[in-house]
Amino acid sequence: MIGELLEMAKFLLGFLPWILFLLLPTDGWELLRRAVAICFVASVVFALKQLRKGFILSWATLLFFLACTIAFYGFGWIWLAKHMGIIANSFLAGIIWFTVIIGKPFTLQYARADLPQERWYDEALFRNTRFIAIFWGVLLLIPTAFSTFRYFYPGTLPDRFYFGLSLSCIIFGVAYTTYFKRMKRKQREQGKKGGQS
Q: How far is CA 79 from each of CA 45, 63, 85, 144, 196, rounded to the nearest angstrom?
């Protein structure tokens, strides 16, 4: 159980800047600029190990918040601020789909970090991590679609709906990923027991 919690915490570190961005106040120019700068710092501080190992999600997150920080503080891009909900959600979903399309699901990097090297190229590992990455990609299209809806139909739904939806997607994603890993681990253990008898 403690091992699963540690695995979940490592996985969540990749999303921490995005979770912070969701939780920090961003209504208003100064609050948004501050939130983006905080998320940029968090993407460096909390993902230093993943950045050194070349984790795609960590690098893309760092570059996103760096670009936004430069755009806001260096150029004062109001346009970016007005469209930040759509852009941030689209970018995060896009990172995940990019890793799937290039054949390096972001989840594979996290899985390999916890496995011995002899299992790194296991076909089942690749298939399972690809499935989870696709699951996350589909899941994150939901807040992206609703951010787009919000842009075209502002005020139709209360702000707390969009916040709750994004947070629910993250919680559901982490819960399902944890469940899926536990289920696959049990299947693997049962397979080993069946092979020994």
A: 28, 19, 12, 18, 63
> Alpha helix locations (H) across the chain?
2-23, 29-45, 48-52, 56-69, 75, 78-82, 84-101, 106-113, 123-152, 159-196
> Hey, what amino acid is at 113?
A
Q: Which residues make Cβ contacts (< 8 Å) with residue 25, sequence separation at least 6?
A: 31, 35
Half-sphere exposure of 22 (CA within 13 A, CB side): 21
Q: What pTM does this model have?
A: 0.86
pLDDT tens-digit readout, 48-69? 888 999 899 999 999 999 999 9
DSSP 8-state class, residue 117: G
100 neighbors 134 (Cβ within 8 angstroms): yes
* 125 burial level (CB within 10 Å; 0-12, 13-18, 19+): middle
Cβ atoms within 10 Å, residue 149: 14
Q: CB atoms < 10 A from the CB of 121, how many? A: 9
d(CA 110, CA 147): 28
CA 197 to CA 39: how far, in whole Å? 52
CA distances from 126 to 86, 103, 129 (A): 30, 9, 5
